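Supplementary Methods. Inverse-folding protocol.

Structures were first reduced to a discrete structure-token string of length 208. This string, shown here, constituted the complete conditioning input.
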């Protein structure tokens, strides 16, 4: 199935965005050389420059000592298209991955330019949750959950931040409904069990 989907993307690659999709498909498979070649092809089309440069940045930051080069590519993508949200998000993520607060500048700029772009709220939430600034993390996770209610992976981090804040109503409102609709998301179980235990519902926490 994976090979078929890649073949389909290749077959549809007739313009810049199409070749950028090919690059992203290779990137998802960890095929960096093929991805870079596809992004370079996208760069030859007038309509593919921002997505191509952004993709080249993603290739760079995956490589050892490729951080600075990746940052340059993301910024070049924004030179081509100042409203290219993915480049802002990737800049923020790249800096946060290095524990550099510079990432907040680009994440905030993405929100200022497009408050409906959900990924930025997740990036901000993960940054603050990682640094145990749970009140700020929860603020961004709440906004993200409204936009992407089915993201169970992010909900786990959201839930643990709520638990550390003893915000059991928040777990009840945001995490329990998600667990009911996604019973396969077993990593949410400890969050709900902790809420029940601390709320005096010990028997229910044992059932979970």
């Amino acid at each position: 199935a994976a090979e078929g989907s890649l073949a389909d993307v290749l077959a549809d690659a007739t313009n810049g965005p199409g070749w950028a999709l090919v690059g992203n498909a290779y990137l998802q498979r960890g095929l960096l050389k093929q991805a870079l070649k596809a992004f370079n092809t996208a760069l030859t089309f007038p309509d593919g420059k921002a997505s191509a440069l952004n993709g080249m940045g993603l290739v760079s930051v995956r490589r050892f000592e490729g951080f600075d080069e990746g940052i340059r590519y993301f910024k070049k993508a924004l030179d081509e298209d100042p409203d290219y949200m993915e480049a802002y998000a990737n800049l923020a993520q790249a800096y946060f991955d290095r524990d550099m607060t510079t990432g907040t500048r680009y994440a905030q700029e993405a929100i200022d330019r497009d408050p409906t772009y959900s990924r930025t709220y997740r990036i901000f939430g993960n940054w603050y949750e990682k640094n145990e600034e749970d009140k700020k993390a929860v603020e961004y996770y709440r906004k993200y959950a409204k936009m992407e209610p089915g993201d169970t992976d992010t909900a786990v981090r959201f839930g643990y931040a709520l638990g550390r804040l003893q915000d059991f109503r928040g777990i009840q409102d945001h995490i329990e409904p998600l667990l009911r609709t996604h019973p396969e998301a077993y990593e949410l179980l400890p969050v709900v069990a902790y809420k029940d235990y601390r709320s005096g519902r010990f028997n229910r926490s044992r059932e979970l």
